[in-house]
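Bug #77: duplicate submission created two jobs. Keeping one. Sequence:
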Amino acid sequence: MKKFLVLFLIPQSVLAEWLKTDADKRKAAEDKMRGEWNEWMRKNAKKIGDTQACGKTKRVTASGVSDTKNDIHLYSIVEAQSQEEAAKLFEDHPHLQIPQSSIEVMEIRPITGM
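Kept job's structure:
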């Protein structure tokens, strides 16, 4: 079995607009998606490893450390036979209901010789 890093992306502009939505309407939509997400996770639990939310971002360069933002919202570690199999797993994921959202799947491998 191979391991894959799965990134759940939402454009910062979409999140900013969402936060302007009426609190009751936002809560209802978030509760609905959370239920669908939990059901998806139950259905696919054997393949999904760690899933975590990502917090604020710091960028480190030769010039120092600074605050930054990116579109990464969550990540998961997934096990599958191939990248195609791993990606196919997410075709019906509730995250994709969010406007302009996407999910990226990339293989993770040990670094040899270190």
